[in-house]
Automatic annotation (TrEMBL):
Reaction(s) the record says it catalyses: GTP + AH2 + S-adenosyl-L-methionine = (8S)-3',8-cyclo-7,8-dihydroguanosine 5'-triphosphate + 5'-deoxyadenosine + L-methionine + A + H(+); (8S)-3',8-cyclo-7,8-dihydroguanosine 5'-triphosphate = cyclic pyranopterin phosphate + diphosphate
UniProt GO MF annotations: 4 iron, 4 sulfur cluster binding; cyclic pyranopterin monophosphate synthase activity; GTP 3',8'-cyclase activity; GTP binding; metal ion binding
SUPFAM superfamilies: Radical SAM enzymes
Protein's name in the database: Molybdenum cofactor biosynthesis protein 1
GO biological process per UniProt: Mo-molybdopterin cofactor biosynthetic process
Function: Isoform MOCS1A and isoform MOCS1B probably form a complex that catalyzes the conversion of 5'-GTP to cyclic pyranopterin monophosphate (cPMP). MOCS1A catalyzes the cyclization of GTP to (8S)-3',8-cyclo-7,8-dihydroguanosine 5'-triphosphate and MOCS1B catalyzes the subsequent conversion of (8S)-3',8-cyclo-7,8-dihydroguanosine 5'-triphosphate to cPMP.
Top enzyme class: lyase
Length: 379
């Protein structure tokens, strides 16, 4: 621990100056899985912020985590997020205004939501993001305000965002090779993303989460290089299975399943150990002896976590989505602008939550189902 704290201080100072794939998994990976107790912590919602019936679905899942997409615009063109020809953007008048975002967020928080994540597009391209953060962080009952960003402009905006109440950060980065970064994102900017990671560490964010979508033939040769980032820095590297969305040319052959990624990590870092995860956690979390940071795996395709899902999504155009992979959406913007009061909005939200299915359809069926591009949904 002392070594890790020393390393963190050094970085602060330096800145200031698929199921069938699983059959072949190695015995080492299976041993690690068995060593983790399946009875994850069952922590109930605290009494001071009870969950209303509006947020409880027909399977008894309480939804206390709201992801809000602030914009459909982005300053990168990542291959797994946006089609090469781009996407048609929603006209600005049809996007939620700052006051509409805050009102709807307040409705969710007063009903039991205790975590909000800001997404996009790229949320930092929205000019009023600091004011949005300030107002959201002031909502009574909200315990965590987070952001998922590509990090291109984050470094210069982060000090102000922290002042406005931003609690935690996820930065998307799929390669540690600058030339490959330009290929994957269709833009330059690798150095700025790395600067943003260091800026977040310098400002005391711990951990700084780094999201890496693993794609066969593109970056699966860098898995252990990403794990090395956790050795001396308080970084949580999160390996994400490649998921199908409209326009990203998903193919099962591009998917690198969790078991395969884990096997690569275990061979290089045999001291990796499973942590105890909360029942609503999307990631399988691990520590490695001697590392300041940690490693996680998000296994949406090969080992889904739908039974503990507590997430809801509010899109930039005001549509409400209860499942990332489900095509169903309902507009909250339209009734809001038609003068609906809070009770009417709660009825619409509650009805949508009650319609949420027990689990997504499975990766092959998801790939055939019409859904929006990820840049419309929000990462």
């Amino acid at each position: 621990m002392r070594r890790c704290l020393s390393k963190i201080t050094d970085w602060q100072m330096g800145f200031k100056n698929l199921n069938f794939f699983l059959v072949g998994s190695s015995s080492v990976s299976r041993t690690i899985e068995r060593s983790f107790s399946s009875n994850a912590a069952q922590v109930d919602q605290t009494k001071d912020n009870p969950v209303s019936d509006m947020l409880i679905d027909s399977f008894g899942r309480s939804h206390t985590y709201l992801r809000i997409s602030l914009t459909e615009r982005c300053n990168l063109r990542c291959q797994y997020c946006m089609p090469s020809e781009g996407v048609e953007l929603t006209p600005k008048p049809q996007l939620l205004s700052q006051s509409e975002i805050v009102r709807l967020a307040g409705l969710f928080v007063s009903s039991g939501v205790n975590k909000i994540r800001l997404t996009g597009g790229e949320p930092t391209v929205r000019k009023d993001i600091e004011e949005i953060c300030l107002q959201l962080s002031s909502l009574k009952g909200l315990k965590n305000l987070a952001i998922t960003t590509n990090g291109i402009t984050l470094a210069k905006k982060l000090p102000k965002l922290k002042e406005c109440g931003l609690d935690s950060i996820n930065i998307s980065l799929d390669t540690l090779v600058p030339a490959k970064f330009e290929f994957l994102t269709r833009r330059k900017g690798y150095e700025r993303v790395m600067q943003s990671i260091d800026a977040a560490i310098a400002l005391g964010y711990n951990p700084v989460k780094v999201n890496c979508v693993v794609m066969r033939g593109l970056n699966d040769d860098e898995i252990c290089d990403f794990v090395e980032l956790t050795r001396d820095k308080p970084i949580n590297v999160r390996f994400i299975e490649f998921m199908p969305f409209d326009g990203n040319v998903w193919n099962v052959k591009k998917l690198v399943p969790y078991a395969e990624v884990m096997d690569k990590v275990v061979k290089r870092f045999p001291s990796i150990k499973r942590m105890q995860d909360h029942r609503t956690e999307t990631a399988k979390n691990f520590t490695i002896d001697g590392h300041c940071g940690s490693v996680s795996f998000i296994t949406s395709m090969t080992e889904h976590f739908c039974s503990g899902c507590n997430r809801l999504r509010l899109l930039a155009d005001g549509n409400f989505k209860v499942c990332l992979f489900g095509p169903s959406e309902v507009s909250l913007r339209d009734p809001l602008r038609s003068g609906a009061d809070d009770e009417a909005l709660r009825e619409i939200i509650g009805a949508a939550v009650k319609r949420k299915k027990a689990a997504h359809a499975g990766m092959l069926d998801i790939a055939k189902t019409a859904n929006r591009p990820m840049i419309h949904i929000g990462g």
